[in-house]
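Residues determine shape. Next comes a sample protein:
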Amino acid sequence: MRTLLKALLGSGLILLGMPALADERHLGVVVSGILAGAVRSDIDESEAIPDYYKDYNLEADRGFEVRLLFGDLNGGGLYASVGSLSAEDSGNVASHSFDNVAFGGTLATTFPYWGHTEGYARGSLGIGASRFDSGLAQDRKTHALAEAQFEIGLAFYDRVTAGMGIRLQYIGHPAETIAVATIPQINLSLWL
């Protein structure tokens, strides 16, 4: 997890170092709480090799995501995120945690709601890396991922947002999808 946080911080510094864009854009810091989430192994592959693909199933009971958004609340931009899902009682579940880091583009729009409060909708597409960890060093597995995220909520004074969303992650590579993660989120953000 420490490596993933370093990657997020490094990507945020790269984004902040873009002087041509820095005059026109804002930085948003989003913290997401995850009360439940699921990672499911690919059905076709898990039927062919059930012992290997059982490691890619996780019923998470908690998690978080921290995302840096470089852009406008109403418009496009870039993002970098780091997240983690974990299970308190793994039972028959082989993977105890699922960590990920991703980078990509985001597009958002706002619409009038009431007074200084606006509604917003945001969509994001990105790529990154994920790691499954069952607690044993030899069982850690790292794979590429592609993700899509959709979020709706309220923006207060163009500075603070509160919303909910869902993130879908496809783990593996184009010729072989290993697992799919479905992650509902509750989001709070501050725009600087």
Summary: The helical segments are 2-16, 19-22, 43-48, 50-53. The first strand starts at residue 26 and ends at 34.
